[in-house]
C-alpha cells in the first residue's frame, strides 16, 4: 500500500515538474518565437498551432524516453550527476541570447515547419529539463506527458500573442531568471552527489 502511494506520488511529481519546467523554459525559446511570428504573419493559423503542439508532444516523448533509457544503464551516483549535467545544459541554453531572425517570406509548408520546430526543440532548455526529470524520477510516461503539456502551453501562448509576444513580454529577463534558478538547482544536485552538501 505504501509502495503504491509512493509510486503514485513520484509519477505525479514527474508530471508536474516536467509540465512547469517545460513551460517556463519554453518562454522566449526559439520554437515559441517561430510559432508567434508565423501566427502574427498568417493571422493565427490553426494548422500552425496543431503542428506546434504535435512537435511539442513528439520531442517531449523522445527526450523522456532518452532520459529513462540512460537512467537504466548507469549507477545511482552517475544518474544524479547526469541530472545535474542536463540541468546545467538547460541553463546554458536559457542564458544564450536568442538570435532567431524572422523569416522574410514565411513558408506555409507544415512539413517544413515541423522539421524546423523539432530541430530547435531537441536541443533546447525545455527538453533538457524533461530529460533530467525522466532520468531522476524513472517515470518517462509522466515526464513526457508533463513536458508535452508544458511545452505545448508555451507554444500556444506564442500562437495567441503573435507579434505581441516580443513586444510586450520581457523574454530576455525571464530566460535569464529561469536559467539562474536552473543552474542553481544543477549545482545543488551536483554538490549533493559529491557529498559536499
Automatic annotation (TrEMBL):
Coiled coil: none annotated. The chain crosses the membrane at residues 6-27, 48-68, 80-98, 110-136, 142-162, 174-196. Keywords: Membrane, Transmembrane, Transmembrane helix. The keyword Membrane applies. This is GDT1 family protein. It comes from Qipengyuania benthica.
Amino acid at each position: 500500500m505504501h509502495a503504491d502511494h509512493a509510486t503514485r506520488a513520484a509519477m505525479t511529481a514527474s508530471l508536474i515538474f516536467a509540465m512547469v519546467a517545460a513551460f517556463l523554459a519554453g518562454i522566449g525559446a526559439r520554437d515559441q518565437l517561430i510559432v508567434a511570428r508565423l501566427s502574427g504573419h498568417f493571422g493565427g493559423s490553426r494548422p500552425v498551432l496543431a503542428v506546434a503542439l504535435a512537435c511539442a508532444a513528439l520531442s517531449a516523448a523522445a527526450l523522456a524516453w532518452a532520459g529513462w533509457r540512460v537512467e537504466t544503464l548507469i549507477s545511482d551516483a552517475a544518474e544524479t550527476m547526469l541530472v545535474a549535467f542536463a540541468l546545467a545544459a538547460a541553463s546554458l541554453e536559457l542564458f544564450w541570447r536568442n538570435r532567431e531572425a524572422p523569416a522574410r517570406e514565411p513558408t506555409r509548408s507544415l512539413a517544413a515547419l515541423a522539421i524546423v520546430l523539432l530541430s530547435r526543440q531537441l536541443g533546447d532548455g525545455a527538453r533538457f529539463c524533461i530529460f533530467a526529470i525522466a532520468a531522476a524520477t524513472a517515470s518517462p510516461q509522466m515526464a513526457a506527458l508533463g513536458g508535452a503539456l508544458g511545452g505545448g502551453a508555451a507554444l500556444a501562448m506564442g500562437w495567441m500573442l503573435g507579434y505581441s509576444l516580443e513586444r510586450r513580454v520581457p523574454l530576455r529577463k525571464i530566460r535569464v531568471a529561469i536559467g539562474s534558478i536552473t543552474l542553481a538547482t544543477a549545482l545543488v544536485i551536483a554538490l549533493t552527489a559529491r557529498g559536499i552538501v
